[in-house]
Amino acid sequence: MQQEIVLAMLAKEPSYGYQLRARLRDALGPLGDALNAGQIYVTLTRLEKAGLLAVERSADGGDRSDRKVYVLTPDGQQRVAEWIAEVNWPKPDLAEFHLKLIAASSAGLADPVTIVDIQRRELLRRLRDAQRAAMAEPRHSNAALLLEGVVLRLQADLRWLEACEKNWTHRRSGS
Amino acid sequence: MGRILLVGRLALRDLRRRRTEAALLLIAILAATTTLTLGLVVRDAASDPYESTRAATRGPDVVASTGDFAQPADLEKLATDPGVTEHSGPYPVIPGELEASGRRSDVQVEGRDATVAAVDQPVVTQGNWVSDDGVVLEAAFAQFLDAHVGDPVTLGGRSFTVVGLAVTAAMPPYPGTSCIVSVGCANGAVPDDRDLPPELLHNPGLVWLTQADARSLAPARGPMSYVMKLKLADPDGAEAFVDANSGDHGGTMMPMQNWQSILADATELARDSQILLLIGAWLLGLLAVASLSVLVGGRMADQTRRVGLLKAVGGTPGLVAAVLLAEYLLVAGVAVAAGLAIGALAAPLLTESSAGLVGSAGTASLTWSTVALVTAVALGVAVAATAVPAVRGARSSTVSALADAARPPHRTGWLIAVSARLPVPLLLALRVAARRPRRVVLGVVSIAVTLSGIYVLLVLDSVLGDLAGTGAYTEPQVAVLRHVLGVWTVILLCLAAVNAIVLTWATVLDNRHASALARALGATPQDVTVALATAQVLPALLGAVLGIFPGGFLLFAAIITITGGDGDKATLPGLWQLAALVLATVLAVAALTAVPAHLGGRRPVTATL
Amino acid sequence: MNKAAGTPVLRTRGLRKEYGKGEGLVRAVDGVDLDVSAGETVAIMGPSGCGKSTLLHLLGGLDRPSGGEVFINSRRIDNISEKALARIRRTDVGYVFQSFHLMEELTAVENVELSALLAGRPPRAARRRAEELLDQLGLAGRARFLPSALSGGQRQRVAVARALSNEPLVVLADEPTGNLDSAATLDVLQLFEELHGYGQTLVIVTHDARIAATADRLFSMRDGALVDETRLTGGTAGNLGALIGLEG
């Protein structure tokens, strides 16, 4: 889990760990199921060590981790502001698949069209899962918006696979 | 120059793209122009030929004959009247019987000089003027006899040869001939139950011989009749002259006829035909308008989109309007030319009763005013048809003109609700009809107009049948009027048929999509075919009923009023006749719409959806 | 969803459709063998012009094949009369079109009841069924609206209701989301999922991967032939979180 995300989720107000988790779940919907609590606490500990956030014990005392209230330090606030201003976009790693097809074809390891078919089946399954999840979400919810993004990216990938298939079929019949 | 070429090319291409539509449009405008031409030509024929004949033949202002008791001396004395400027005659007139190629007719034989007379010198239209043993026939009479120059004829037992045909303004053409023999004439049909004096001439024709030949045919008993033609100083005062002089000549009456009454007699028949024709022209005009508005209305919706398209690729509203106008002008131009030609060629068929007059025998002439009027009407249609989409196209934004692909169908809620309770073909038929109420109205009007016309034709036909026996008209006159009615009927039926097909075709095209959809949802091709046809037949049924009552009644009343006739004498068609007429109309419309509807019902579904 | 259960609702053998002749011969459908079981959702995907719409028309008896056989519920339909074909269309098949094809002058409920009326149902029963269907599809309040007053998604739902009004054996949908935006597409997808849940047999022709992904089986079509079959039922892709790269 990216440290900045956790930091940013704390920017609103000092929170308990379970509050932080609930906020993430709300934003991610069913996609948030992948997050496990441990992962988040590991990240929080790292951030504390880095001096980006401080921990306050809650009034009723106790030492259990779920009684800790996490607060951003000025450094932490600075980091969040930087992160918000950052222009950053995940790069789809198409080159790997592309090179896989070329390698398979040139070395005669496998039929690229078969690889494309298998890949497409996988993507279609993912699409269906995302689609089902999207349909289960209430309209205009945060999670529905995220799922729509997922669906649209998968569609784009499928379209590229279509182009790959057409191209490799053409090469096969052309050669 | 390039602009004109562009406009022409765009216009031609659009017409070629929709050939059927262009052809139907042409037919509709053509029908209108033809009818109009006919009406106008016949109107001219009713007055002009007599005038020209009168001029060409030095027509008399007054024709005087000796009648029963007057003597040639009385005629000579009349010639010295100070009001008379010129005269010819007296000429001998003999009653006789002429036989030509098996046909017999009574005739009045006028003995003439071979030299040219100062007044009333008949103009020879074929052959030569009288010579010994040579007879000249009045042109309309010759037409009735089917006699030609060179034919042998028997006259009063003697053989003669037809040497010529001629026209005169001294007497109305056959069969309106006035009586100048002393034995008297019976014009018109003679009722069988009346015994006429045997020597009376029955519908006599007019022939000319040399004086010598004429005298050789003189009857053994009774005095010879004489006729004299007079020119007056004051032709307009002919009637007063007749009143003053026909009276007392030593206790005898001298029969006289002034040129005005000859004119009236000569043109009577043409005028009767003309009234029929003009009323026919009105009906045909209405029908033409009905089909035009369907065609043009359908095109306008299409063209609004086309205007948007032209504008989208940079055409100015002016260019767009020019293209539309060019299209219509092209069609209207062809229709005007063809309509004038057909009208001019067909008019003589209706005016042949005037064959006894110069200028009308086979050449019912087109006047400039007729050409101008017919052209103006056709151009009016073209301009009106252009103006609406052009203005609408220029005013609407390009985008909305493009988006507004077709006229949205009309919704008639109650009809849709009612139709839900009907069997499938009727359900579809009512909905097809309800989508375009204006077209349904046009369909009803078109059939109603046709049926009114046919109703009146039926009444007139029976009236003519009755008249033939009463003497108001002679057989040939009735034949001429029947002929006019016949021409009327043919044009009326043709146009009505074109209308029915136009309406059906417009409906089929308009419902292409809805029909395909209905079939995709499980309607059979028969269902759709029956629906498309029924959508025409139902309005036709309504139109047929309305066309008879009140349409036909009103139209007949109008004709009676205009002609000043007596409507009480007319036998109105019986109820069963009317029922048969309605049934026949419905069947005819069903038959006419069957083919386009069948094509519409069978169209492959997938091609449309 | 069990393919072994009974005979297929829809079956084709060697189905062909050709247009033109000689040089210009186009094989729009070229030897298609297809079995669709009851309750199954089958999607056929392919680029435009691959012949998938033509195939759909042949399946529902809207068009006649040049060769091969089509069976609906074991009854051969490629060689029956036009009238019998019309009967099949009205009782056994429901169509959903890309451009909805609603009658503009009819309200939503009148559009839905139309196919029932064409099938000769009593008008009262047809109206009741149409209202029920619109109610089920969440359009109860729009029953008296004309299509022009409805959104794209609503129009397509009306069209689906019309397709269902005669309780067809199979619903054939031709690019049902082709004219819809993303949100309306989701609407229609949801609707098809529901139909699938009720056990309605569906054949959908599309080039929208989203709709294809909801199918039990997916065929790819190329140049008139089915070239690849993917069974999408059972087994999910696994953790949803994997889709957004949140794990690890």
TrEMBL record, chain A:
Q: Which Pfam families match?
A: PadR (PF03551)
Source organism's superkingdom? Bacteria
Give the Transcription regulator PadR N-terminal domain ranges: 6-81
Coiled-coil positions are: none
InterPro entries found in the cross-reference section: Metal_resp_DNA-bind_regulator (IPR052509), Tscrpt_reg_PadR_N (IPR005149), WH-like_DNA-bd_sf (IPR036388), WH_DNA-bd_sf (IPR036390)
Q: What is this protein called?
A: PadR family transcriptional regulator
Highest lineage ranks of the organism? Answer: Bacteria, Bacillati, Actinomycetota, Actinomycetes, Micromonosporales
Automatic annotation (TrEMBL), chain B:
User: Quick check: keyword Transmembrane helix in the entry?
Assistant: yes
The protein's predominant localisation is membrane
InterPro entries from the xrefs?
ABC3_permease_C, MacB_PCD, Macrolide_Exporter_MacB
Keyword Chaperone among record annotations: no
Membrane topology recorded in Swiss-Prot or TrEMBL: Multi-pass membrane protein
Compartment(s) where it occurs, according to its Swiss-Prot or TrEMBL record = Cell membrane
Q: Ranges for the MacB-like periplasmic core domain? A: 25-176
Mind listing the UniProt keywords for this protein, alphabetically? Cell membrane, Membrane, Transmembrane, Transmembrane helix
Superkingdom, natural source:
Bacteria
Q: Which residues cross the membrane?
A: 21-42, 275-296, 332-350, 371-392, 440-460, 480-509, 530-563, 575-595
Pinpoint the ABC3 transporter permease C-terminal domain residues.
280-395, 490-593
What Pfam families would the database entry show?
FtsX, MacB_PCD
What family does this belong to? Belongs to the ABC-4 integral membrane protein family.
Q: What is this protein called?
A: FtsX-like permease family protein
